[in-house]
Amino acid sequence: MKSFEYARAETRLDATTDARNGAAIIAGGTNLLDLMKLEVMTPQSIVDINRLDLGTIDVTEEGGLRIGALVTNSDLAGHSTVKRDYEVLSRALLAGASAQLRNKATTGGNLLQRTRCGYFYDTAMPCNKRAPGTGCQAKEGFNRSLAVLGTSEHCIASHPSDMAVAMMALNAIVEVEGHDGTSRQIALNDLYCLPGTTPDIETTLQPGDLITAVRLPKPVEASQIYRKVRDRSSYAFALVSIAALVKVEDGKISTAALAFGGLAPKPWRNSEIEAELMGKAPSNALFDRAADILLTDAQGYGENDFKIPLARRTLKAVLSTLTEVSQ
Amino acid sequence: MTLKTPLHVNGEERMLVADSRTSLLDALRHHLGLTGTKKGCDHGQCGACTVIVNGRRINSCLTLACMHDGDEITTIEGLGTPEAMSALQSAFVRHDGFQCGYCTAGQICSATAMLEEAKAGWPSNVSETLEGDVTLSDSEISERMSGNLCRCSAYPGIVNAIREAAEGEHDEKL
I need a surface site. Which of A250, B41, B87, B104 has the fewest CB within 10 A? Predict the structure, then answer.
């Protein structure tokens, strides 16, 4: 690991000032320290935000939840309101990582975790995300776990989070404080960038920005599922995952919110799928059309070709379960 | 950058003087002489370095020692001694919950905290419902311990030991 200066933030301003001057913000540290050990990330200074007052979960005026950025994945998964009203989020968190990691990993850090693409992690390899301009070896290489949607010729990395997929389906909003002390809100979908020609730029955050909380709108009355398909039954990243909230009234779908993990460089949501489902009677043919919309632009790169039919089958299975249509 | 960090480990106050890069794991092993905690992968994947901080099990390899002043840290040395083993330690011996023993300190620290999580009603990925009391079936134990790998694959003994400790908790003095 490269040497770095360590500072502990006593105030949010300490954190945003240090971050603006190039410090890496450390909270749980489970991903940052891993990457620093491998020298994939080499910050000259880090600022520790763990003593800031960002660790509470509060009910908002609109009847939703405000989740502090330092709330651990364990505490969020086990929170009574989350378990009752946002089951898909509890389930996504419990499907991710191990108990030890969930005890350290935070809400803000989970959103910002980096891809687990093997080329990004291997400093002996070219990687446009880690070292812009060096090329993407993953396209013709080991890409079993990588993306089939939203990729570019420069990068096919997939986003690893489960939590963020559930939050995407729940229309989460990220609360950010800038270095000038102003607070702003970003829809989670707008936090992430697609790789395009600049895969090293992953979010719309600016230097000096600090995620302070994630806000969830008031709960939606719907059946909720987080379905994760992976190589092992525990402690593995998603090959395909789906967070879904669906309600059927009078034989027709009246609520549909779907987000996808393991398939794209960001938690993936496509409102056209939901528009197709809304107001229709659930059927296998309808679910196939939903999968057609999801996968229209899907592109496999060899090892990960299987994700395309797997995403279709997983989506159909999830929709069948939630609408009680037998396949 | 060298930092001075007071650490509370197993009920004792210890002063750490170390480079900012020092992980909690290396601080325990190399600076404080507490070599019971083991380094496996050093990347949070194997669980051999599991210790308990403020009642929560964590991977000590993925956290900096300088971040832990004021925290209560418990390592395997703080759970029991050969003469006075904890319920889990003696259960691991009785059930052959190991072969080479390298992962055992991490397994036992992890299981110690896991039993508290279960008592507090924390659900897991295999729990049918998110609410209510937790019954530690074999699949619940396996899921909750999935962050601790055993290269010798002593898993049946590990699960038996944990089940016995969970069931015998009321009879056996910790």
Answer: A250
**Which residues lie below 8 Å from residue A7, measured CB to CB, with a gap of 6+?**
A14, A18, A23, A45, A46, A47, A48
Chain B residue with the nearest C-alpha to that of A44: B1
Q: Which fold has domain B87-167?
A: DNA polymerase; domain 1 (1.10.150)
Say if strands B72-74 and B50-53 run parallel, antiparallel, or are unpaired: antiparallel
Contact B64 A6 (CB under 8 A): yes
Rg (CA), chain A: 20
Report the candidate in A168, A167, A145, A166 with the shortest Cα–Cα distance to residue A157.
A145
Polymer length in residues for chain B: 174
The CA–CA distances, whole Å, from A80 to A86, A213, A241 equal 10, 18, 24
Per-residue pLDDT of chain B (174 residues; tens, 9 = 90+): 999 999 999 999 999 999 999 999 999 999 999 999 999 999 999 999 999 999 999 999 999 999 999 999 999 999 999 999 999 999 999 999 999 999 999 999 999 999 999 999 999 999 999 999 999 999 999 999 999 999 999 999 999 999 999 998 534 444
With an 8 Å Cβ cutoff, are B1 and A50 in contact? Answer: no
Q: Provide the terminal-to-terminal Cα distance of chain B, rounded to the nearest Å.
A: 41
- Domain ranges in chain B are 2-78, 87-167
What is the spatial distance between Cα A137 and Cα A133, in angstroms, rounded to a whole number?
Answer: 12
Cross-strand bridge partners of residue A45: A5
ipTM score for this prediction? 0.96
CB A149 within 8 Å of CB A264: yes
Determine the distance in angstroms separating the CA of A91 from the nearest CA of chain B, rounded to an integer.
7
Closest chain B residue to the Cα of A86, Cα to Cα: B130
Angle (nearest 5°) at CA A195 between A190 and A200: 100
The answer to whether the B2-78 and B87-167 domains have the same CATH topology is no
Q: Hey, where are the domains in chain A? A: 223-323
Homologous superfamily of A223-323: CO dehydrogenase flavoprotein, C-terminal domain (3.30.390.50)
Interchain pair A3, B21: CB under 8 A: yes
B2-78: which CATH architecture? Roll (3.10)
Which of chain B's residues have a Cβ under 8 Å away from the Cβ of A235? Answer: 146-147
Find tokens 């491998």 and name the residue.
A38
The dihedral built from the CA positions of residue B23, B27, B28 and B34, taken in this order, carries a sign that is: positive
CB contact under 8 A, A6 and B124: no
Q: How far apart are CA A234 and CA A301, in angstroms?
A: 26
Chain A nearest-CA residue for B124: A94
B64-to-A69, B42, B45, B67, B166 alpha-carbon distances in Å: 20, 12, 17, 6, 32
